[in-house]
Amino acid sequence: MVGCVQVEDRAVTLSNERNSIERTYELTKYLDHQLKEIKDTYLLYLGPPFSDPDFSPPRPNISSLAVPSAATRVDLWRGLENGARLAQNQRAYSVLLCAVRELARSTLCPYLQSSLLHFCSGLSGLLGSISGLMNALGYTPPLPTDGHAPLTTPALSPRPALNDFTRKVEGFWVLRELQSWLWRSAKDFTRLKKRLRA
Amino acid sequence: MDYSCVFPQQLDKNNSRNTSDAVKMALSISTLSLLILLPHALTSTSHLAVISPQDPALPIGSSLTVLCAVSAELGLAASSLYWTLNGRRLARSTYTVLSPTELSVTLHRLNGSQQQSGDNLVCHSDNGDVLAGSCIYVGMPPEKPDNLSCWSRNTKDLSCRWSPGGQGETYISTKYILKYKLRWYGKEKECQDYNVGQPYTCYIPRDLAIFTPYEIWVEASNQLGSATSDVIILDILDVVTTDPPPDVHVTRLGELDDQLSVRWASPPALKDFLFQAKYQIRYRLEDSAEWKVVDDVGNQTSCRLAGLKPGTVYFVQVRCNPVGIYGSKKTGIWSDWSHPTAASTPNSKRLQTGSCDPKSEEHNSTLRQELKQFFGWVRKHTYGCTNVSIKLYDQWRVWLQKAHKTRNLVLQSGKS
Q1: B26 in helix, strand or coil?
Q2: Chain B interface mutation, best of A165, A169, A173, A184, highest count of B Cβ atoms under 10 Å
Q3: Which PANTHER family match (chain B) (predicted)?
Q4: What is the rounded end-to-end Cα distance, in angstroms, of chain B?
Q5: CA separation (Å) from A98 to A38, A94, A103, A156, B13?
Q6: Phi, psi dihedral angles at B39 (to 5 degrees)
Q7: Nearest-neighbour CA in chain B from A189: distance (Å)
Q8: CB of B116 closer than 8 Å to CB of A108
Q9: Between B381 and A190, where is the model more confident?
Q10: HSE on the CB side for B63, CA within 13 Å?
């Protein structure tokens, strides 16, 4: 009898988690949609060649882009443990949230600035969602979720960009990384949902 | 705070969404299945090349020479490099090779920057890779801001607006700071909330003194210079406005087809500080753009509009001016107009009678002409018919109509 009760509890808990994952997935899709609009406006703000369709400057090696790469080998991706999968997402968005905040701060255009800040609150929500999920599923306690996560590599402390052009390139890449991660997260959460059903 | 910059345009959404889900899927699958081993050099810009000057700010029409010094370890020849400005390649005739690793370009008669974030001047290797870039800011120093005016809502706050002066476009980021201080007390303060709703505006929400004047001015500055507006001096109580009157109702006055009754409530702030308010009404026909203004409404909260057209829809608005604030004789600033309220006058009660007048005027005029001519001839060629004229004919017609009516009445009364 006791065993049956435990199983029931677990089923309910898992069902809650699946709902959470579904909501987080929805949030990811929503942010992805928002990002498209902001990115287009931001690229116009940067001006050509940033707004040209095929433009791709070299990726800066700086702390605000020290995110786990969204792109990864298929076998590695499939093999990710639920906890590790969530942790990667959490780490990526922690860093990216800081980066977008900095982007907003240095934007000259008030309209764009408020759009970016609004987007930041969405990102912050996503981060909270992921941390909540990690907690609920019993994984490693998350890093502080306010977007100012202490960096695990203290050597890469944030420094101001050398010049305005470099700052533009960094901004360009922050938004590009963000886009990659939102695409990837959608797949991560879909996979998580499948795994929890098993 | 500056304001003019990129506004979201109707971007070609189809293009950006052509990365359809199918393509995205293919992209991500291929990305996921790729063994990514990026050479370290391609992920770092820090030492590919150095450009100078970095981020220069120049007046429109200037010339500028920019140098690209490429890192020796890349093994690139300066002569193989090229420059682009805002994505467009610059002519080789403007380049100068200064050394095996240094290439410069000279720009003449620069136009105002294409975007406020700066024009993008980029040094490329021969295969198109970005080696380094510099943002160029070409513009003008700000002109003296003018038309500075301020108003207070219910004596609690202060909103100010100004114009940028001159052409208004400086092409580079220009900051405006609104400053204010009490006239006889030295401490200067800065307004914090800019562009609340509209550009070149600022809002001071609290901590304002009344019964004592303020000095207010705007300072504009950018990388090329600065300018200060004239100082205006005002007492908050002289520039007070209030909310439009709430609860505006427009109703008919019984059967009267040319009048409407307008009623409203006084703005709530009235009881807090105003001695009295005066009102103004305006109204227009539904499909007209011309407003008629009723000025002498005084401080009543109702008014009767007369001389209107029957059976017509009118739009009516009311606004309020706070007068005699704390006993002063001055008027304040008119509030916004209330939301338009619509009402219609009743249709006219008069019968749509068929005209008793002869209908076919055209027939009569030909007939009358002929008759006139006939009578003229009769007068000339007969004896004793000197009184014959068209007037006689008209009299006969009148008599005929009366006789016709009487006959009809008799007939009708006969029927009933």
Answers
A1: helix
A2: A165
A3: CYTOKINE RECEPTOR (PTHR23037), ERYTHROPOIETIN RECEPTOR (PTHR23037:SF28)
A4: 87
A5: 17, 7, 9, 14, 28
A6: -60, 140
A7: 15
A8: yes
A9: A190
A10: 5
In degrees and rounded to multiples of 5, residue A118 shows phi and psi of: -60, -40
**C-alpha span between B86 and B367 (Å, rounded):** 86
B 61-90 residues inside an 8 A Cβ radius of A: 84, 86-88
- Least confident segment among A100-104, B129-133, B305-309: B305-309
Q: Smallest CA–CA separation between A55 and chain B, in Å? A: 9
Interface probe, candidates B86, B114, B117, chain A, greatest A C-beta count within 10 A: B117
What are the tens digits of pLDDT across the range B221-267?
999 999 999 999 999 888 988 889 999 999 998 888 888 999 999 88
Tell me how far apart the alpha carbons of residues B416 and B414 are, in angstroms, rounded to a whole number. Answer: 6
The reported pTM is 0.69
Cα–Cα distances in Å, from B161 out to A194, B50, B152? Answer: 58, 44, 12
State whether residue A184 sits within 8 Å of chain B by CB.
yes
Residues B127-142 have a mean pLDDT of: 94
CA A172 to chain centre: 16
Please check whether residue A3 touches B, CB under 8 A. no
What is the rounded end-to-end Cα distance, in angstroms, of chain A?
23
CB < 8 Å to A166, chain B: 45, 133
Pairwise CB contact (< 8 Å): A166 & B45: yes
Scanning every residue of chain A, which has its alpha carbon at the shortest distance from the alpha carbon of B55? A164
Question: Looking at chain A, which residue has its C-alpha nearest residue B19?
Answer: A36
Tokens of B266: 């006084």
Output B38-42 pairs: Cβ under 8 A, ≥24 positions apart: B42/A58, B42/A59
SS3 B107: strand
- Identify the bridge partners of residue B190 per DSSP, sorted by sequence position: B179
B132 and A58 Cβ atoms separated by less than 8 Å: no
- pLDDT bracket for residue B353 (50, 70, 90): very low
**A52–B45 C-beta distance less than 8 A:** no
Residues in A touching B173 (Cβ below 8 Å):
108
Would the CB atoms of B42 and A58 count as touching at under 8 Å?
yes
Contact B302, B261 (CB under 8 A): yes
Joined tokens for residue A197: 């059903």
Pair of tokens at residue B326? 């704390």
Q: What is the dihedral of CA B78, B83, B89, B94, to 10 degrees?
A: -80
Please, are residues B100 and B92 in contact by the beta-carbon 8 Å criterion? no
Per-residue pLDDT of B54-83, as tens digits, reads: 999 999 999 999 999 999 888 889 999 999
Q: If you average pLDDT over residues B148-164, what whole number do you get?
A: 92
CB atoms inside a 10 Å sphere around CB A187? 17
Assembly ipTM: 0.81
Q: Name the residue facing B44 among A51, A58, A69 (closest C-beta).
A: A58
Cβ–Cβ below 8 Å for B28 and A40: no
Candidates B6, B34, B88; nearest CB to A109: B6
Residue numbers of B between 142 and 161 with CB closer than 8 Å to A: none
Give the span between the Cα atoms of B121 and A163, in whole angstroms.
13
